[in-house]
Structure formats: C-alpha cells, structure tokens
Specification:
5 helices
C-alpha cells in the first residue's frame, strides 16, 4: 500500500460516512471493515441514518475520523483524513516531500 490512499471521492457528498461503514450495500454495516478500522459498531450504525435528520450524525462522524485506525500487514498505521475526499494516511511513513505535496506545507519536526 501507498502511504496515502484515496478511500472515497467527495462526489459522494454527505454520504461519504455511510459509504465508509457500509461498503457496497448502503443499508448494511460492513462489520469486517468496521472491525479492521477499530470502529464501534454502535457508532457506525448511526451513520446508516439520514445525515440531514440525525442530530448526532456529524458528531459521530468526527469521532470516527479522529479515532479510527487500521494496521496494515507491513505494520504501517493508517488513520483517516477528510478534506472533501476521504483518505487513509500512514503519517509516520510519509516522507517530507509526500507531506509537502499532499498538505501543501512542510511537516513540523
């Protein structure tokens, strides 16, 4: 895997959170995916609801963005980053150039 992986395009709009926790079937949680990313199924289940009418939807999505992580077979730890598109990023493995190219600023050392 690369150090920066595009997971979902921003073309999904407000449905990125649902797409992340469901995979191919937007009505069913992908429990294996949630387990792999260390996401509580209770929290993930909230993202099956309508983002326009579920009061806690965005708070839970932020909580998932801030806490979810995945450990790759090679030991790299990926966390989530959303700026329009949703990415998995192995921050500890980014070179200074990769960091600069992606974030547009030098990494603080």
């Amino acid at each position: 895997m690369e150090n920066i992986v595009l997971i979902l395009s921003d073309t999904r709009g407000v449905y990125i959170p649902r797409g992340f926790v469901t995979g191919n079937d937007p009505a069913v949680l992908d429990t294996a995916h949630c387990d792999k990313w260390h996401i509580s199924l209770d929290l993930a289940a909230t993202l099956l609801n309508d983002p326009y009418t579920t009061e806690s939807f965005w708070d839970i999505w932020v909580q998932i963005l801030e806490s979810a992580y995945f450990i790759a077979d090679d030991g790299r730890k990926y966390t989530l980053y959303q700026d329009g598109d949703l990415f998995a990023i192995a921050y500890d493995n980014l070179t200074s150039d990769q960091y600069l190219d992606f974030f547009g600023e030098a990494r603080e050392e």
